[in-house]
């Protein structure tokens, strides 16, 4: 999730458990600790462009790391803020740990993938119930936290948490409806998917991207679920087969290993770019949910040295032009 949402949920939980006089302090420490796990974005290397993909939402987001992350935040924030506000170290630790603990669970509700069970498993959990940015989730929660701090009424933070749970529940209902529509669409095409997922499109839970896999292809579509259901048919792409698509690639090279790292990060949803033959794309994300138009990819270099890494690319072109199209799909036009 975006930092504001992470911080706001991180503020709401300790604030909801605090007494009236500590409502503001609990929210402040929880807000900062709630954002802290994303400091893992600083783990990167100028020579290895995929390192940050491996370590974002990694050990700092693991459930087992929560008490340690909370303690680290408390040691820093108690000196900077907590002691000045009259908090004991124990209170600072409690508020920071509660705030820190909300982060990974919230991230797992998105589509990106979070390593909740590290170091026991490298599975990336993605429950696909909310977009990484969703104002309808964030703004009511933020209002509740701010008013609870101003009026010293922790009960308002509890109302905010209730809204967060309710909205996630609505997202779950919408996700399951979108999955069902995806299976119906696949059946109409005579397909039996090996797997199928539905992911919320940007900033809403009305319009969903469905991706399903057959023996040799991935199919991408968009559906408007539950309220005035509608299908926006998309397109398909062949699954990446390295021996066929990039026969020049040495299986023992660093580039080949990087492809497998990217496959793990993308949960296997990778294909060769239909336009750029030496580019491998993650088909899970696109600006318009019924398109195969990746937000990021890796680019391989034929003839590269055995130890050379791939290049990491991001693609954000044409965003403004697609906003009206996206809005028409969300509103069911």
Automatic annotation (TrEMBL):
Transmembrane segments: 21-39, 59-81, 93-118, 130-151
Origin: domain of life: Bacteria
Family matches, as InterPro entries: Transcription_regulator (IPR053170), YdjM-like (IPR007404)
Keyword Protein transport attributed: no
Keyword terms, alphabetized: Hydrolase, Membrane, Transmembrane, Transmembrane helix
Any one Gene Ontology molecular-function term assigned to this protein's record: hydrolase activity
Protein's name according to its UniProt entry: Metal-dependent hydrolase
Protein's organism: Seongchinamella unica
């Amino acid at each position: 999730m975006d930092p504001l949402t992470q911080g706001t949920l991180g503020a709401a939980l300790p604030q909801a458990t605090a007494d009236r006089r500590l409502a503001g302090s609990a929210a402040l420490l929880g807000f900062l600790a709630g954002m802290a796990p994303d400091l893992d974005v600083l783990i990167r290397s100028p020579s290895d462009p995929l390192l940050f993909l491996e370590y974002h939402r990694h050990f700092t987001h693991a459930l087992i790391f929560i008490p340690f992350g909370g303690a680290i935040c408390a040691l820093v924030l108690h000196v900077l803020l907590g002691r000045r506000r009259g908090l004991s170290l124990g209170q600072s630790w409690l508020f920071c740990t509660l705030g820190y603990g909300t982060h990974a669970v919230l991230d797992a509700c998105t589509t990106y993938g979070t390593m909740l069970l590290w170091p026991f498993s490298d599975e990336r959990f993605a429950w696909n119930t909310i977009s990484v940015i969703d104002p309808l989730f964030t703004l009511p929660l933020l209002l509740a936290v701010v008013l609870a701090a101003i009026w010293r009424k922790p009960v308002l933070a509890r109302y905010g948490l209730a809204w967060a749970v309710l909205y996630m529940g609505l997202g779950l209902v919408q996700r399951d409806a979108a999955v069902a529509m995806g299976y119906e669409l696949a059946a109409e095409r005579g397909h039996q998917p090996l797997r199928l997922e539905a992911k919320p499109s940007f900033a809403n839970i009305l319009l969903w991207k469905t991706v399903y896999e057959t023996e040799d292809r991935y199919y991408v579509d968009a559906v408007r679920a539950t309220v005035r259901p509608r299908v926006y048919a998309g397109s398909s792409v062949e699954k990446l087969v390295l021996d066929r698509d990039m026969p020049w690639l040495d299986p023992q090279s660093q580039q080949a290993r990087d492809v497998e790292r990217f496959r793990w990060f993308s949960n296997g949803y990778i294909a060769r770019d239909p336009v750029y033959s030496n580019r491998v794309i993650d088909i899970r994300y696109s600006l318009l949910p019924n398109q195969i138009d990746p937000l990021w990819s890796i680019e391989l270099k034929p003839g590269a040295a055995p130890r050379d890494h791939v290049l990491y690319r991001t693609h954000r072109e044409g965003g403004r032009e697609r906003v009206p199209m996206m809005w028409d799909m969300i509103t069911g036009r």
